[in-house]
Structures are given as C-alpha cells and as structure tokens.
Amino acid sequence: MNYNKKTIYDVDVKGKKVLVRCDFNVPQDKKTGEITSDKRIVAAIPTLKYLLENGAAVIACSHLGKPVATFDSYVKKQVEKGKNEADITREEWEKSLKKLTLAPVAKRLSELLGQDVIFATDTIGEDAKAKAAALQPGQIMLLENLRFAKGETKNDPAFAKALADMAEIFVSDAFGTVHRAHASTAGVAAYLPAYSGLLVQKELAVMGKALDNPVRPFVAVLGGAKVSDKINVINNLLEKADTIIIGGGMAYTFKKAQGYEIGTSLLEADRIDYAKDMIAKAEAKGVKFLLPVDNYCAAEFSADAEPVLVEGNIPENLMGMDIGPKTQELFAAAVKGAGTIVWNGPMGVFEFEKFAGGTKAMAKALAESGAVTIVGGGDSASAVEKLGFADKITHISTGGGASLEFLEGKELPGVACLLDA
Ligand code: AMP
User: Fold this and answer.
1) What pLDDT, on the 0 to 100 scale, is given for residue 387?
2) Helix (H), strand (E) at residue 218
C-alpha cells in the first residue's frame, strides 16, 4: 500500500470548486440533539481554512450517525429489533432522519470559521446543486447528511458522479471513514482528481512511516476485548515489530494456549490454536511476545467488584480484569528504549476505575518513553485522553476502524483512490 499521496498543497485550488469529505460524525445529546463534543469539527478547520484562504469554493460533506435511507429498510430493521410491522409509521422514520441532520454542524462550523456556512437541505438534489453552482471563491457550503441518500454506503456510481459533478477537485479529510468504500470516500475519485487533506495526510505520514520504516526497536502494544478482532493486526505486526505486548481481555486466550488456568476470564476457545501458532511464529522470528504474568481479578464483571491480585493460574471463580503490578513493570520496561510504539486496545476494563490502573500505567510508559508513540483510535484513544496523557503522545489516530485496518496492512479504499505523490 502506497501511503505517499498528493495533498492539498500539491494543487492550485484558486477559483476551483472543491468537494471536501470531512468527518463531522459528532456525538450528540440523545434528547436535545446538542453537539456534546465539537472536536471533529475543530480538527477539520485547518484544511477548510487553507482551501478558503487560497481562493477555493468549498463544498463540505459528511455522514452523521447511521440513518436508514429508505422507509423499507427502516421497517425491516425495526422488525428485526422485535417491533410489530403494522405499528411502524413513515412519520417515525422521518423523525429518525431529522435527528441526524447536519444543520447543527453547519452552525458550529460557521462559528469556528468566523464566516457563513451555506447549508444545503439535500445531498445531490436541487437545493445542493443550485447552491453549489452559485458558490463563490472563499465561500463554504455543507451538504446534508450523506447517508440520507441510499447511494452513499452502496458506493453507487451514479450518486458518486452526481456529488463529483458539483466540484472540480476532491479532498479526502475524513480518516475515520477511509477504510470504507463509500461514494463520498472513494467513489468520487473516479470522477475528480483526488488529494488528501491535512488530517488524512498526517495519519498517512505518521502511521505509514511506523509500518514501513519504523525507528527501531518497534514495539506494538495490543489490548482490548477480542483476539478475533485483532488477528490480522497481530499477523501483520509479527512481520514488522521487534516486540509484541498483549494485554486486556484478549490476553487470556493466549494464556490458555500456554496451558494456564484463566478462571472465568474472557476466552475465545476457537482461537486457542491460532494463539499457539502466533506464539510459535513469534519465537521462530525472534519477535519478543509478552503476556501478563499477574492480573487484577474479580468475582464478577462490575465496577464495584473488589480487585484480587493473582499471579499465574487464575482460580475458577475469578476473571482477569486488568494487568497486575508485575506485568505493568514488565510492559513498561519493554517499551522503555523503544524507537516506535504503536498501541491499540486497553490493558484492562479501564471504564471501571478500580481496573484502570494497567491502562494508566501503559499510557504513562508510552508518554515517558521518548519514542514515536502512536495510539490507535477508539477505546485506547479515549483511555489516553481520559487519563490525561494525550498531549504526551506523538499521534492519536482519529479513526478507530480505519487505524486498525491500517495496522492490518490492508488497502484502505479511501487512501488508495488518492493521487500518488
Ligand atoms: P476493543 O474494542 O477490542 O479495543 O476492546 C475494548 C474493550 O475491551 C473495553 O471496553 C474494555 O473494557 C474491554 N476489556 C479490556 N480488558 C478486558 C478484560 N480483561 N475483560 C473484559 N473486557 C476487557
């Protein structure tokens, strides 16, 4: 996979209409619809400002949430959830869509940019087309939620072309969706010259280098709940890393594979053979493969459960909830002196204060390592932020799924479609 892509600095945008795929998928208050964190809108500002200041007319677009684009599919989904088909109304579906309008994002974007944001009430309809046609250099408009159109997630060429027809240049700046081949993330690039925005460019530069040409030793720290989610990541990193550290719920399947008792800890029995293979492969390749040696356990999965420190075999009535102090030391020592550290997945059930210690210790070890540190999106990113170490990390990826697929070495459709530098 080539991560070296042309950016907005490589094209003259003056007087051009530029379609920018942003990530405005912001969290909202369920009741009031109020935006509860504008971080993603703030993050989009540098690219948008650059384009506007350089004379582009900007057509911004994004998805928000998971609207169901047609009434028929809405009915199907509700029936699957156990609702009675006869009770499902069109009004209810329309109401569900209204909740996911991007209008509040347009308002916040306008405040942050300090200029008007023209809002189109559709994506490729009359309103969007007319507003795009009238758009002047230095002006910005935002299309309505892309997923209101059924062509978006299906990567329908006709929908992609209609989006592209409004503009002359495409800029991809929504890293969180580059692993999806949707009309606005990949499809449009068939019709427009495609460049990376500054957010995507940074992700590619930092993560691409870490995987292709890391400063060594290269240490990968993996955690989280499931082995099955990270199989391809482990496979890929075994080819590249010098050390692999495994914590979190997924570690117990590996411990079981080594012949330890793990009590009621998370176990994926159908992955034990895989775990054995990985341990053997690491040994054959000379990759250090570290697993927990002690654990804070609990009798039940609860925030109030009393942590019990267990070394070695876990008794049958207890489950591993976090890595213990010896493991914290072992893992911290392994990242000390690293050149590059990639971290994806918490070391324990960090949402429960009593079991957040291992994840906290790992975050601290990364922060103090002096290495290039990269934290994958999702839970590990929120853990680092919640625990207050965010400003000491080189790069926190903005894409959960996307950064995982990056680590898997998979081709990302939203990156592959951009012009090579
Ligand atoms: P993932 O989405 O795979 O990165 O997993 C993140 C989730 O794994 C978090 O919600 C953690 O609470 C959970 N997790 C981490 N360690 C454990 C554990 N020992 N037992 C159960 N869940 C865990």
Assistant:
1) 83
2) strand 218-222
